[in-house]
């Protein structure tokens, strides 16, 4: 049984690929030392016996041994220069050194025993010292290959003990026993060290496998984060990242930027439902990808809007024509044949600008012009469209010259607790009726305000009016404000919010501040400190439009957040088969790290049902209510308190 185990022990040399590579790599550094030790020690013994023993033992035999040893040493030095071996090469090297170790040890010990009778006590003691020290050194050099070390020890030790006993002198017998005990302890240490070495290799292999799997998962998550779930195209995040790259790493290289929007999509979506609309978008995405050609990259920016980046500036006009032709071609969804059109705004670098934001804005201006002035088709940004840019300047001037406290109004959109159907919070949205420009959409004037100091005045007015409205709401209804990137890091805004909370006496825990991913990731470390400063005064923090910005899951875990709001694009995707994957993943992620979760843009009963099933606790959207003035909201809240909101409730139409 023991012989069988020993045979299996030797037979398994090199079978574990990772362990074999580590053993061979170590031996490439240590075996040349082993052979060098043999040469030096053996040469010393031959020198001390040159006048005591026959020349065949002091010249001929050691010369043959030295030549073989030197050849083997050179061979291992060459192996070391080749670097890390493959598992197959390592296996061959380990088996070769094991096979050679026994004969080499036998040859050297035989030669030393042949020398032992010659000379006086000093020469004989030198032979004993040579055998004992050399075998110990060889065992240390073979510490990562215990089979070879054991062969050397079992070859040398019996011969050494026999030599000592043959002298029939107490000192030699004592030395023999002493060396035998030392070798026994040394072998025990060798096996312990090898066990530790093997465990380290196995642990390193496991860690490497885990790291590789983690890298694969991270890459998959990154791919998903940069991919639109509905169309399979690159998403808005990827578009802005690529646009930034083209304007920085490829600075000075001409390229074209396009923003494409579908015409007549909304009526189709409203008439046939989101399911048909989503299938239409998916098919349009496929057509765009195939028609874009080898150089143009197509992105879905959100809704029915797509982006384009193409370094082939000369051929981009033909690419645009192909894309619009594909969009205009009839498209069958089941038994329904749909007809849509497209409008495309184009900006060329460097003619329209050299910064990513300028190029995108001007392509967007060109799109607006194509839709509202050209009735569709392609519009290239030119100097003539600077008028549109000046319109933004007009908004900026109107903001600077306005009394925002008087001109701004707020509306409140309910956030519903899905389990109970009751209102748990409201989001404050701002409206501006300018005496100069009339009604200006928040999308337009907020974007302009963020480029000037007017955003701080808007924020203060909205917070003041929102907190005043909160005094009229029940204490259990929280109130949520959107904070821009400019206000996020503003100590003045922080101090203002603190003063307003103290002035109104509202419990800070009722107040939520929503900040977008883009605002946070502009400078994640500074944003984290700013968010914590807001939390320190008692308010809570939500990450808005999650999934559309630049944040990674790791950053979200490190940010001081209380809640995540799932972007409406992921909620909209729920209505398509398999479109709930990302929404479910975000909900699970939030639960895992202990964050609350709110779904934005809920518009269908199907979306609500899936969110409830996935464990989402709160949602907002037109399915429940559009934004309302505070008086209308109080009336709606009273109705819901008596009859909590239901999917089939007649309140849906009233809201």
UniProtKB/TrEMBL annotation:
Keywords: Membrane, Transmembrane, Transmembrane helix. The keyword S-adenosyl-L-methionine does not apply. Pfam families: EAL (PF00563), GGDEF (PF00990). Residues 253-383 form the GGDEF domain. Residues 388-641 form the EAL domain. The chain crosses the membrane at residues 32-49, 55-75, 96-118, 130-163, 170-191. NCBIfam families: GGDEF. This is Bifunctional diguanylate cyclase/phosphodiesterase.
